[in-house]
Model the fold of this input.
Amino acid sequence: MGQKMEVLSTVRVQKAADLYKIVDSLNRTLKEKDLMFGLSLDENDEEKMVFTIYRT
Done:
């Protein structure tokens, strides 16, 4: 995986059970536009998630 990914935006949002479904839909729909979306738990606040947009 020698591909460099550029972070375009990062935002912390309230934790939600179905948020991963939106991220999955964005990845499936916009991968041809060289965009990728990530979602992770915030390391400092268990009630928050980190949503990140990347350019591949």
In short: DSSP finds one helix and three strands in the chain. The radius of gyration is 12 Å. The longest strand covers residues 6-14.
